Amino acid sequence: MAAPQGTGRQRRKDMPATLRHYLVHGTCDIKYTAVQPRTTLRLILLIDSSASMAAGQQIRLVKGWVGNMLQRYRHQHPQVSLVALSHGAATLVSPFTSREEEITAALSMLRTGGKTNMAAGFETAAQLVNGSRNTAYYQLCIFTDGRINAGYTAQPTEDAVAVFNKQLHHLRKQTYIINTETGYPRLGLAVSLSDRLGCSLLTPEH
Question: How far apart are CA 110 and CA 32, in angstroms?
Fold first, then answer.
């Protein structure tokens, strides 16, 4: 689908807006935005692959969502990085790449288990952004059920909030929590985390 014509401004597909629409509504509705030339969207996918995600089969859903997103919007060629949270640590599974096959391969090899250290994940994400002159084209997507049970103190959620506020506050408006919680009763921890961080929350249809 071509970008709308006649606006007098250069336009391109808006992948974050399109992704948000797809995750929430399950339909592909291409969004457009005016951009400066020679800019590249850098998308950081922070994926909770801890034991709670494995037990509820959420990690399977996440792999499906990300895989579908890459397939649907492969012609946009964003730079995508993948960070996994498991076993109380954060692992940079894939640095920034525009090669869809590399992201797909990294996603397929995600291991699950252990606890979720969101603070470590935020630190890794911050390292990916540090040194960039323009952070306006970075997007941080956090796939999690909100169960944070590892950190640097006895209050791991507070650790995560503190790290985000110190190192990623400039990405607050470009950060999205994708709520992966399934089943009942639902604790609403991802909802609470988005409130604490002041970022947007997306709850896909399962």
Answer: 32
pLDDT digits (tens, 9 = 90+) for 59-86: 777 777 777 777 776 676 788 899 999 8
Count the Cβ atoms, other than its own, within 10 Å of residue 128: 18
CA atoms of 62 and 53, how far apart (whole Å)? 9
> How confident is the model over 125-174, as pLDDT tens digits?
999 998 787 888 899 999 998 999 999 999 999 999 999 999 999 999 99
Alpha-carbon distance 177 to 179, whole Å? 6
DSSP 19-44: HHHHHHHSS----EEE--TT---EEE
The H or E element spanning position 60 is helix 58-72
Beta strands in the chain (DSSP E): 11-13, 32-34, 42-48, 79-86, 89-97, 138-144, 175-179, 200-202
Residue 76 has a pLDDT of 66
User: Residue 18's closest CA among 8, 6, 27?
Assistant: 27
Token readout for 54 is: 């494995």
Out of 83-87, 95-99, 110-114, 189-193, least confident range: 110-114
Find, among 102, 122, 146, 110, the residue nearest to 46 by Cα: 122
